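SEQUENCE, STRUCTURE TOKENS:
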Amino acid sequence: MGMLQKIKRSKVVFYLTHFTLYKLPGFLFRPRLKFWLTNNHPDVQKRLQYYASPSATKVSPNWQKLSNFRRPKRGSMYFFDLVKYTKYFPKHYQINYKFGDVTENFEEPTLVKSRPINHNGNSVLMKLDSRRHFHFVKDHTPFLDKDDKMVWRGVIHKENRRLLVEKFHAHPHCDIGDVSTHHDWVPDAWKKPYLSIEEQLQSKFILSIEGIDVATNLKWIMASNSLCFMPTPKFETWYMEGLLVPDVHYVHIKDDYSDLMEKRSYYLNNPEKALKIIENAQAWVRQFLNPETEKTLSIQVLNRFFEKTQQKSS
């Protein structure tokens, strides 16, 4: 089964599983809340503090009661990712959330998928839109067996991406291009055919370039045997992009890409250093692969949100 077929199948499974959970009554979940709150492992508590450290406040009038939390017409993946954990809490509790690509800070505690790395604390991270963003791969091709191209595919909707494609769309050591079909202003020379994840993974070097918020491809690149190149990220998700260390978890490049080819040459000539970064990247990925830990953290993040908004005692 090809990667695209697997992704389509996983989407069907996601909706079937989560719709079933959504329809189940809350009284089946709430008795288990105490169990999920008992995990005090230092690694769990460290991540919990990172995700949820909002200022203490009271509930605002415009917040939504869990009893009224219903599937929206749009953003249902975000909804399903959140509602499966809200079911563990009393129906009279209230939440404040914003779905979608969030790039701003908030005056009140708000449940979000993404936030600026330089945030004010009120953006409480949840693992939302998880099927799209937390797609990891099993890469069976060793780094040394891959080709030497620098690869990127995406849609140009921000200046950072436009600059990349403008500079490197015709470079002999690069396979970089825009895949949009509706941007008439993009020169034909900048447009390249779609490349599947499997096809991109045939290259040693893959670029991760932020879009509206984070770069969706960062997770699967770091799970692979290819080397991730990216500028310092400005936004973060449940993946804790703000804690990634340049030249330890990924190859750091300048915002204007002026050192891109120099860095490529360096790691091409020093494969042992490339392999060390790949090893570190894969170790980072492993902390997100335990379903029980991910569920524990999701419930504890919500629990802290309710504590900080004075809806329950610590």
The first strand starts at residue 64 and ends at 65.
